[in-house]
Amino acid sequence: MTVLHLLLISFILACTSTAFAEALNSHSSNNNMKRVVVTGANKGIGKACCQKLLEEHSDVFVWLGSRSSERGEEAVQDIIKSVGGDCQDRIAMVTLDVSSEESVLQAAAKIQQQLKGDGKLYGIINNAGIIRGPDHSVVDTNYFGTKRVVNAFLPLLQRPGGRIVNVASASGPYFVQGLSQRDTLYKALKEPWTIEGGLDGVDELAKKYCDQYGSSYAFSKALVNAYNLLLARSQPDLIVNAVTPGWIKTDMTVGQGATNPPSQGAVPPVWALMDPELESTTTGLYYGSDCKRSPIHEYRSPGDPVYNGPTGIEATSSK
Ligand SMILES: NC(=O)c1ccc[n+]([C@@H]2O[C@H](COP(=O)([O-])OP(=O)(O)OC[C@H]3O[C@@H](n4cnc5c(N)ncnc54)[C@H](OP(=O)(O)O)[C@@H]3O)[C@@H](O)[C@H]2O)c1
């Protein structure tokens, strides 16, 4: 191969990658697209959410969040292969470790740059989570990680109507149900609007009770539900809701008998992110895996009557 051939090949490669980058940039900054971020999306339910969004919504651009850029890029390539079509222009990876303030801020800065000008984010799915590890790490990733992401991305969200979906779990209501009703924590998690200090008060509960109950995962998800409500109250022009994906076979539940595929777990988060009916519904609610309203203080099975108790969104204390 001559030097001329090598120069020609490098020229073609440069043109192709520039064209690809331009296509990506035009979709990520095109104001007609709904641009969304999904955290913890290199596998499991998060990855399935990205795929479902691209398959079912041709006007969505997805940033697939992954704490490992290598695993994230692999997931992007898998999704492009499965979805096909123009999907490669509608997905990009963003390195995002929800347990690191620095990583979350860098991810938000990168996305802000790609949004360009006055472009806004349509929504966030806070999906990243862990179930194993020291109690403080579980609470830090699942609860504080959710809050870190929200705080960093709030300025980028479109208003009115930007959406935040917090992926909770049925273990949250189970946790609250298992507490004594005389317990101050029970009242706080059942009626988060009574928490002294509002959103900061949830942080205090997280720190105080982090390793007190032997189930930091369930506790962290109960905190996510309390946070979800208080966040919705503090951001009335956004659509903020929590969902449980259901009992899904992923690395998180490996060996525990779950059989439903991640694509099924993606249904509630994608519904909460995209369903037009939620534009005119009270926000700050928690939905079961059947996408029906559920209480945050006791378990409701899919198919059971929809919960109709107080939403707390209209309560006036501790906003
Ligand atoms: N599976 C279920 O039955 C079930 C039920 C209820 C709720 N959920 C919730 O659904 C969500 C997804 O769970 P899954 O079942 O899909 O579990 P999974 O397969 O283990 O996926 C968890 C994802 O979160 C990521 N992650 C963990 N720590 C992170 C961090 N610090 N920063 C960024 N990403 C991080 C993981 O990345 P790495 O690959 O780098 O570890 C992975 O991509 C979680 O919030 C979970 O609590 C799951």
TrEMBL record:
<dbReference type="GO" id="GO:0016020">
    <property type="term" value="C:membrane"/>
</dbReference>
<feature type="region of interest" description="Disordered">
    <location>
        <begin position="297"/>
        <end position="319"/>
    </location>
</feature>
<protein>
    <submittedName>
        <fullName>Short-chain dehydrogenase/reductase SDR</fullName>
    </submittedName>
</protein>
<comment type="similarity">
    <text>Belongs to the short-chain dehydrogenases/reductases (SDR) family.</text>
</comment>
<keyword id="KW-0521">NADP</keyword>
<dbReference type="InterPro" id="IPR002347">
    <property type="entry name" value="SDR_fam"/>
</dbReference>
<dbReference type="Pfam" id="PF00106">
    <property type="entry name" value="adh_short"/>
</dbReference>
<keyword id="KW-0560">Oxidoreductase</keyword>
<dbReference type="GO" id="GO:0016491">
    <property type="term" value="F:oxidoreductase activity"/>
</dbReference>
<keyword id="KW-0732">Signal</keyword>
<feature type="signal peptide">
    <location>
        <begin position="1"/>
        <end position="21"/>
    </location>
</feature>
